[in-house]
Amino acid sequence: AVNVPHFGSSTSEMRFFLQQPVTRREQLFQCRVTRHRNGINMFYTRFTMETDDGRFLMTAKKQRGNKSTHYAISMSRMPSCKDSGDYVGKLRSDFSGLGFTAYGPGSNPAKMDSKLPVAQAMQAVREELCTVRIGASFRGAKARGPRKMAVTIPRVQDQERIECRTLSPETSGLAALQKFDPNGLTHSFHNKVAKWNEKLGAYVLNFNRRVTFPSVKNFQLAAPEDPDNVILQFGRVGRDAFNLDFCYPMSPFQAFAICLSSFDFKLGFD
Questions:
Q1: Is 223 within 8 Å of 187 (Cβ atoms)?
Q2: CA distances from 2 to 5, 10, 22, 29, 50 (A)
Q3: How many C-beta atoms lie closer than 10 Å to residue 126's C-beta?
Q4: 2: nearest Cα among 187, 252, 257, 258
Q5: How many Å separate Cα 161 from the centre of its chain?
Q6: Whose CB among 96, 131, 210, 246 lies 3.0–4.6 Å from 174's, allowing a Cys bridge?
Q7: Other C-beta atoms lying within 10 Å of the C-beta of residue 88
Q8: How many other C-beta atoms lie within 10 A of the C-beta of residue 159?
Q9: Strand partners, 32
Q10: 12 CB-side CA count, 13 A
Q11: How far apart are CA 211 and CA 191, in angstroms?
Q12: Which residues contact 72 (CB under 8 A, 6 or more apart)?
């Protein structure tokens, strides 16, 4: 089982756990994601992530007043601002609503003081932790079939994640490396192709009983070179309840951010 920090652990200890990849020896880390939405605020939904046995991990809240999707992620049950000690990071979409990047705390390179020495700027700039690309054919109305998803995270070597901090994300950020990574600095994953089940009238995958309702949000991720080894799976078990299971080289924060990308309104609620 994954060794989750006990209740009362320090903020720094919990943040370290949430940002670090689970170890190779651990099997799927089983969690639950719950969607909290009500009334006029349904488009600014709050999500919580807990372990399967109910231990709280993170909250994500969709932010108002942004031209693109923006989720703030914190370690407190109620959303907190980025200046709070509970802040873990955020997930932002591009303007198309099809590309997403998750960041740790830090400064946006586009807003950095150009007069800062490069070494100092690199210490202050935010770390890129994962990027998600959704197939363009599913933009707009509800998808008629399973979504196409490509996920890229910094490579993990000897349980240490390569830091992706850059002052030029358009050429050396994760989204750029997702297209071309000649030095092997990243891990890449794609969603497994679901098969159409005539009896159920739906696309299906084998979630080993961890998913109980059909949904376009249900997906499994695997590396192209090892398609039978599921690294992350996510799927509906209730109207607003979803199971999330993942393993090495994912961290809890990365897994949560990847799943949040599937809830963007442009891709259709169900």
A1: yes
A2: 9, 18, 7, 6, 13
A3: 19
A4: 252
A5: 16
A6: 131
A7: 28
A8: 12
A9: 50, 243
A10: 0
A11: 16
A12: 60, 61, 63, 79, 80, 81, 82, 87, 90
Q: What is the pLDDT of residue 28?
A: 84
DSSP codes of every residue in the chain: ---PPPTT--HHHHHHHHHSPPPTT---EEEEEEEE--GGGTTS-EEEEEETTS-EEEEEEEPSS-SS-EEEEESSSS---TTSTTEEEEEEE-TTSSEEEEE-SSB-GGGS-TTS-HHHHHHHBPPEEEEEEE-GGG-SSPPSSPPPEEEEEE-EETTEEPP---S-HHHHSHHHHHH--TT--EEEEEEPPPEEETTTTEEE---TTS--S--TT-EEEEETTEEEEEEEEEEESSSSEEEEEE-TT--HHHHHHHHHGGG-GGG---
Q: Which residues pair with 41 in a beta bridge?
A: none
| pLDDT one digit per residue (tens) for the chain, 270 residues | 566 766 556 788 999 999 999 988 777 899 999 999 876 555 678 999 999 999 999 999 988 777 788 999 999 887 666 767 899 999 999 888 889 999 999 999 999 888 899 999 999 999 999 999 987 544 444 445 556 899 999 999 988 999 999 999 999 999 999 999 999 999 999 999 877 888 878 777 889 899 988 888 889 999 999 999 999 999 999 999 999 999 999 999 999 999 999 887 454 434
The β-bridge relationship of strands 87-93 and 29-36 is: unpaired
Q: What is the pLDDT of residue 202?
A: 74
Q: Which amino acid appears at position 66 of this protein?
A: N
